[in-house]
Amino acid sequence: MIKPTIGRKVHYWPFPHERAFETSQPFDATICFVRGDTAIDVAINNEFGNSMPGRPCTLAQDRAPVPGECSWMEFQIGQAKAQADSAVAVHVVGGTLAGEQPGG
Question: Pairing with 22, which of 76, 88, 92, 104 sits 20 to 30 Å away (CA)?
Answer without folding.
Answer: 76
